[in-house]
């Protein structure tokens, strides 16, 4: 009976790719496994799978209906796994998260390391077992590392992720910086969204000094691409303010690659924004270097300035 | 601050040795660690430590009083670990058991495999990190593998344990069969026990067909060594029967290396023992090849024969 290999629910690129990579390795070692997924791939992962002409994995909602043994990648906690995880035996885990809510009845193979990406650990597994990584699979694994580490720039990135990412780029013959930017851009996928979607999908309201302040955040890999649509965005924000009675609107456009934010703010109280961040708005905009967190870096100084 | 590395409570040879071996490796990799123990070494481990002139590890009862970070070997379940395990952070685990009752707040290094001995996995860790194993440490690690696998004969032994055990024997320049026998013998350590201790320390009573049947079991690596004391043992058994009113006494002397038992039986009802095992007693003794379990292989046929 085939063993199933899968990553966590609501899968990201690493969850999909690590399952494919480890399933390939296990099959080379004599196991009979199939990589499956606990959900549909996101936009970024679809870009990756299309780029390397790799099929989308089959989505399962139950494991015990087709196998007795499973392999977990990129997760171990039961609530992140398949619903009937308790009804199957976990024989292998490859992961880079904390261990919690995980119990086995029997000894198993478990390889976890505190690195940025599961695919980094799977690269080591290939090495330890002297199995060659095909170019296409190397491209997929590189994509997972780029995704989890935001092109080696997230604070979770380790030297090992960088070294292994670069080795995979060589095997895959991929220009990882150029490819990585395109891939992360596909993940943010702002081009397909309307200006109204951009100013509403992650917006939250705050009461400050008697005013209703609306703060929205959009992640991108290219600030200029977003601000090329500035006129559209201004119109959408003004409609939001008018229709919903917001006094002040702040749109944070955050570049996830260099951890900087450009702010566009419209409404009454712009001088309070200037006070909060100690700089002048130019054409209703200001750059906030090093600022990425609405909760920790934007709302507190705003509240203080309004008080 | 030094990290502490330790195996489980009531330590066996692998728990003591794996802590020493992994602490050595971590220190070679730049960590600052100390191998400690959660209890005094047993007779077998003392033999090993003396043989390789290795100091006995310091015994601790609390970790948090001297460090914030610990490394677990040969166990993961909290109830087998130091009492204040919840007050420290586990950064690494090397183990060959199931995972249960184990939770971390942060990602960690975890390497478990379903093999016979933790020291087998630690050998792989040395290889993966390109660190040479000193001859003395190889001897200790070989001892742990011999202990956990009963010289490659226990049902938990894997091909990997055997291959790595033999490599360690080469590095240590040890004749593993000769040394292993001496080591396991030191663990059974029957020579230091009186005949009365041997016939009482693991004896259990059973009511069968209106008779009180006493069954004792002694583990050894050398049946002849035990039966060289047959006169003493007979006297001790007869005293037991007389003083306690046992009708029939069975002493199982079990060779843990080849999984055979020699039975010495005294009292009334010897013919039932002959019936139970379908062979004649010679001088009150019989050999029972393949029989090692009192509970599963001796008591049931006896009960049936008495019924």
From TrEMBL, chains A, B:
Q: What keywords appear on the UniProt entry?
A: Cytoplasm, Hydrolase, Manganese, Metal-binding
Enumerate the SMART domains for this protein: DHHA2
Q: What detail does the entry give on cofactor binding?
A: Binds 2 manganese ions per subunit.
Annotated positions binding Mn(2+) 2? 14, 74, 96, 148
The Enzyme Commission number assigned here is 3.6.1.1
Q: Where is the DHHA2 domain?
A: 180-306
What is the top-level taxon of the source organism?
Answer: Bacteria
Q: HAMAP family this protein is in? A: PPase_C
Give the protein's recorded name: Probable manganese-dependent inorganic pyrophosphatase
Its gene name is ppa
């Amino acid at each position: 009976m085939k063993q199933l290999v899968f990553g966590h629910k609501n899968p990201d690129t690493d969850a999909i790719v690590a399952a494919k990579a480890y399933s390939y390795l296990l099959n080379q070692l004599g196991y009979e496994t199939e990589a499956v997924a606990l959900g549909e791939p996101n936009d970024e992962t679809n870009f990756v799978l299309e780029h390397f002409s790799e099929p989308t994995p089959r989505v399962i909602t139950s494991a015990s209906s087709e196998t007795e043994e499973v392999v977990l990648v990129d997760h171990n906690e039961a609530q992140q796994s398949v619903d009937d995880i308790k009804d199957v035996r976990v024989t292998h885990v490859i992961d880079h998260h904390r261990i919690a809510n995980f119990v086995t009845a029997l000894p198993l193979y478990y390889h976890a390391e505190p690195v940025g990406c599961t695919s980094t650990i799977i690269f080591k597994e290939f090495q330890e077992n002297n199995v060659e990584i095909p170019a296409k699979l190397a491209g997929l694994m590189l994509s997972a590392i780029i995704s989890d580490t935001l092109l080696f720039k997230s604070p979770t990135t380790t030297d090992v992720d960088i070294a292994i990412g670069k080795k995979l780029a060589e095997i895959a013959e991929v220009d990882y910086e150029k490819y990585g930017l395109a891939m992360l851009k596909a993940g943010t996928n702002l081009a397909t969204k309307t200006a109204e979607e951009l100013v509403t999908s992650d917006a939250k309201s705050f009461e400050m000094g008697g005013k209703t302040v609306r703060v929205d955040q959009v992640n991108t890999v290219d600030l200029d691409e977003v601000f090329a649509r500035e006129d559209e965005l201004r119109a959408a924000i003004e409609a939001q303010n008018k229709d919903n009675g917001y006094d002040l609107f702040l749109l944070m456009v955050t570049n996830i690659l260099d951890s900087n934010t450009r702010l566009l703010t419209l409404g009454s109280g712009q001088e309070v924004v200037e006070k909060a961040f100690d700089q002048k708005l130019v054409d209703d905009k200001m750059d906030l270097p090093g600022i990425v967190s609405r909760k920790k870096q934007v709302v507190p100084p705003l509240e203080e300035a309004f008080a």
